[in-house]
Request: fold
Amino acid sequence: MSFSGTVKEELAEQISSARHCQLAELAALIHFCGNTCENGTHLCLETENEAVVRKCFTLLKKTFNIDNVVIEGKNRLLPDDEREGKVIQALHLIGKDEGTIALRTPVSSLLIKNSCCARAYLRGAFLSIGSMSDPEKSYHLEFVCSERIQAEQLRDIIQEFQIEAKVIRRKKYDVVYLKEGAGIVDLLNVMGAHVSLMNLENLRIVKEMRNSINRRVNCETANISKTVTAASKQIEDILLIRDKYGFENLPDNLRQMAEIRLEYPDAALKELGGYLEPVVGKSGVNHRLRRLSEIADGIR
Reply:
């Protein structure tokens, strides 16, 4: 199962104890997975997500004591007109025209006025239209909305929890997305996916350690490459001086430096200084090698 599927399975098992939170989550499920049938006068549920189906059935049972739900094809979600009317009224789905149902609108602010209800609504939204990439590869979580106004409301609800979210147009959909690992972790916590959160945090720690090691190795490799290149240039200069000028014409300190560098071609500057008599520090060695380079440039 994908990481996204694992998150949804965990969220599907989360049932709020308060009825107002149950209504908020049910509203999300029906807003994003619901549709209308029979000339827009009755509710239908269109989804292949079994987690959504189970959650919708459970919430209808808990909030309205409805257990005769039909969820197949374009069949009505609630065959009983009276009970369906109570659900529509409780979820504030009454359309502007008499007898119609409004699903492609923002959820009523009355249903998500409490922080706990907003959390439940986000949980239902992710179950319905959410997805998440494999965190081993990249950090990306999104909600694919069919209406811009719903996407903007969803983004605003997420931002109320101090989590940065953005909306982008993708073909005929408006997508609310998060791309920062820390923000995704916070959102999983808000929705109640605590096991998935811990798994993601473990992956982030391993990934960050791997990246840190790679950066260190790359840095050390670059330093080694730089040192080897510099040493090669120094030896080239010293050989030129020896063949074209002669070590006997160099001052004693530079002659000694040149001989030591040829004897220890792979040694670092600090190590070279230890071979000199008297011992010279790294900056002193660097100064002498630079003087030899200037002499070689002059010969060239």
Notes: Strands lie at 34-37, 42-45, 130-132, 141-145, 166-170, 173-178. Residues 194-244 form the longest helix (51 residues). The CA atoms of residues 22 and 279 lie 79 Å apart.
